[in-house]
Amino acid sequence: MTAPASSFSLRPIDCLALASKYRWRWITPTLVGLILGSIYAAVRPDKWEAAQALLIRNEASNNIDGVGKFRHVDDMKVTQETLLELAKGRQVLSEALTKVGPPSGSPAAHWPTDIAIERLRKHVKLAPPKGAEFGKTELFYLKATDSDRQRSIDLAAAISMSLQTRYQEVLNKKATSMVRELENGVTLAKASVVESSSELAAMESQVGADLAELRILHASPSGTSDLRQKVVFIEGEIRRLETTQRSNQELDSLLRAAQQDPSHLVAAPNSLLESQPALKRLKEGLVDAQIKTAQLAGMMTESHPQLIAAQISEQQIRSEIHAELGIAIRGVEADARLLAGQVQNLQKQLDETNVRLARIARLRTDYSNCVAEVEQANKLLAIAEANLADARAKESGAEHASLINRIDVPDAGTKPVGPGRVATAGMGAVAGFLFGVALLVITIPLPRPNNPTSIGGRLFGRRAMDGVHAGPVAEPQAAAPAPLPATSTSARPQVTPNQAAAPSPSAPDRRGEAPQVKSAPRPPRSTTASGENLNLKQALERIGNA
Fold first, then answer.
1. Strand partners, 52
2. What are phi and psi of 48, to 5 degrees?
């Protein structure tokens, strides 16, 4: 039968046994770490951190969101980042170190040194209040760290004062630069206003009497001006006079026809005779006389005196009409000449007015451009002057007021920052212990498994004292008996579990003959040398390769 395979495992009790057996491999690093940590804790100087509370505000001038308020959180963050760079700047740190002086035991010559400034730069920071994000609150803390508690307080106070002064100087320089730039801009804006105003004045002088019309046309292209009203009035007068001329022409034709036949006058409409009241009255009298003559002729004979008197009266009226027609014709001719003169005069005025309007229309575009240039130049000048006034206000504020306000005095607390001496020594011991455990795991040998067929046996090999596991016996063959020579047990070769083990030739069967055996057809499998020693690291490497 095949031997059962044994599994390889490392129990916790085995680990404790190994740790106890090789205890000095982890106790020694632990003691060394404890000693080194204690020495460092004894010689390490304490670190005191003093915090100065600062309150930042925005500029009060030209602030539509409120006096001293920031327009956006990003503006506040940019300001605090600027303060952080200034706080770590060489000038602020140098002034603070000069004011505080060198630490005890340091030479005062050439103070402050570059090394002292660089060391202090690493121990200065700006921090927000607890639970807040940097740049989100107007309140923040300036912290300075030093080995001496009072010196850290003095450094925090000196740095905050130097930071206030330095920030005022930066704002003052910025405002001064802006004032100079804006003054140049105001000068250029004034020159532009003068130039554009000169062009506008020259154009207005060229326009002359039509300036008012040009301004009205510029202000309201579809509006009503005096010239336009004049044009409308003249055109209306011309139409009225032309109508009167046509009426006079008809009246003149009628009067000339009435000279030949007075009956034409009777047929004339009264509207034509409105300008000739005498003819109108004679026409009415002639009509009355004709009616009376007709009535008498119907009642009396032609020789009747009344009929004759009526006929004479009618004839006399006709004579008067004939005489009056000549006078009326001359009057109509005079009116026609007068109307023609008036129409000609009005037409001349209309032509002159149209010429003026056409000239104004040609000048309107250039005039509008000149006016727009003047307005734009004045607008830019007003903006530049407003910005200049604001910059001057900022410059004055930077000189006399600070945007950084200190709250109370610096405070360093009652305990230094960082771990204490006992904690430092304990951390040294823990570090030594971890190093010892790692050293123990890497260097100790592991126990060997007994079963070469198990995972441990294949990885770590088989020991020399392990027994040989016999495989199954092959069936005997009848042909070609070949007895094996007797060999001692000590000279017997070692075989692997995969090889077939033959029975000893000294043990005969029932017939007293040595049986013929045949070795297993499978080739032997190579195994690891049994005397090889492996540690945990090599074992892990083999496990990984497997």
1. 142
2. -105, 130
> For residue 498, what pLDDT band results from cuts at 50, 70 and 90?
very low
Running DSSP on this structure, what letter comes out for residue 134? T
**Could you give the CA distance from residue 260 to residue 146 in angstroms, rounded to a whole number?**
139
Distance CA 379, CA 196 (A): 13
80 CB contacts (<8 Å, ≥6 apart)? 56, 126, 134, 135, 140
pTM of the model as a whole: 0.51
Beta carbons within 8 Å of 427's beta carbon, 6+ residues apart = 37, 419
Highest-pLDDT range among 333-337, 455-459, 493-497: 333-337
Q: What does each C-alpha distance from 80 to 77, 155, 253, 257, 470 come to in angstroms?
A: 5, 20, 104, 110, 85
Per-residue pLDDT at 454: 41
Query: What φ, ψ does residue 235 adopt, rounded to 5°?
Result: -65, -40
Angle subtended by helix axes 149-207 and 305-400, to nearest 10: 160
Cα–chain-centroid distance for residue 456?
Answer: 67
- Tokens 């007797």, residue? 486
Amino acid (1-letter code) at residue 442: I
In 413-454, where does DSSP find H-type helix?
A: 421-443
Domain boundaries, the chain: 25-181+402-428, 218-399
If you average pLDDT over every residue of the chain, what do you get?
74
CA distance 307 to 297: 6
Crossing angle between the packed helical segments 226-260 and 305-400, to the nearest 10 degrees: 170
Angle at CA of residue 303, ends 298 and 308, nearest 5°: 75
Q: Under CATH, which number does the domain 25-181+402-428 receive?
A: 3.30.1890
HEC string of 45-100? CCEEEEEEEEEECCCCCCCCCCCCCCCCHHHHHHHHHHHHHHHCCHHHHHHHHHHH
Is residue 280 a contact partner of residue 273, using CB atoms and an 8 Å limit? yes
One DSSP character per residue, 257-294 reads: HHHH-THHHHTS-TTTTTT-HHHHHHHHHHHHHHHHHH
Amino acid at 156: A
Q: And the tokens for 406? A: 């200190």
What strand order describes the sheet that includes 48-56?
Answer: 124-127, 139-146, 48-56, 404-411
CA distances in angstroms from 317 to 22, 266, 284, 290, 300, listed in the order given:
171, 12, 10, 10, 22
Q: Which residues have a Cβ under 8 Å from the Cβ of 463 and sit 6 or more positions away?
A: 448, 450, 530, 531
